[in-house]
């Protein structure tokens, strides 16, 4: 089942100098449980597509349909974890529930379940400065999961981390997404990251951005993103995507 469909999405900016077309005929779909990455040249509008999916930006033309199972909440993870330094880890995780007036016993029990399941229970009363970069990013993900999203958007979610931490967090976040049976879309400049995490990769052209290709990634026999990065087949996928981007 398609959980997300973009059909002929276009975006044109208007200012005193005239009009600038940013997106042109963006069309792709995402099935329930899929992990999809979006790659393209810098400035081509990858993050703009995420903003359109969330409804923060309205497209000039085209439609976006989100067919969530149950809740239609869209979760969003940014480049930085955006944890509030004066709140404990548990209080940070509960922030979205507070803002949406959903701090019910059921949802608080669910937060405790997530903290225990993903090894942050012993750190629930700690402050963000007391956690490693990887643990902070895990806390940010659990904060998003607490809202029970039907679709998770990750905007360069690992790029602020050092390389070694980034590799570990990719494995960590990927396992959580799969265990929770989430549907995810990642915007990234890192081709290897896209290949190692994704079921398919949407390759965009330079601005005005259009979909050059939707590439299926068949590396499911390797259980972790780290192993996929190291496999022989990944090099062929990398070369194919690189040639499309240059």
Task: Tell me what you see in this structure.
The protein has 246 residues and is α/β, with parallel strands linked by helices. Helices cover 36% and strands 26% of the residues. The protein contains 9 helices and 9 strands. It has helices at residues 46-54, 89-93, 95-99, 105-117, 133-145, 163-179, 191-197, 225-230, 232-245, and strands at 2-15, 18-31, 35-39, 61-66, 74-77, 151-155, 184-187, 200-204, 211-216. The strands form 2 sheets. It has a 6-stranded mixed beta sheet, sandwiched between helices. It has a 3-stranded antiparallel beta sheet with strand order 2-1-4. The model has no long low-confidence stretch (mean pLDDT 91).
Short recap of the structure:
The protein is α/β, with parallel strands linked by helices and 246 residues long. The protein has helices at residues 46-54, 89-93, 95-99, 105-117, 133-145, 163-179, 191-197, 225-230, 232-245; strands at residues 2-15, 18-31, 35-39, 61-66, 74-77, 151-155, 184-187, 200-204, 211-216. The radius of gyration is 18 Å and the shape is globular.
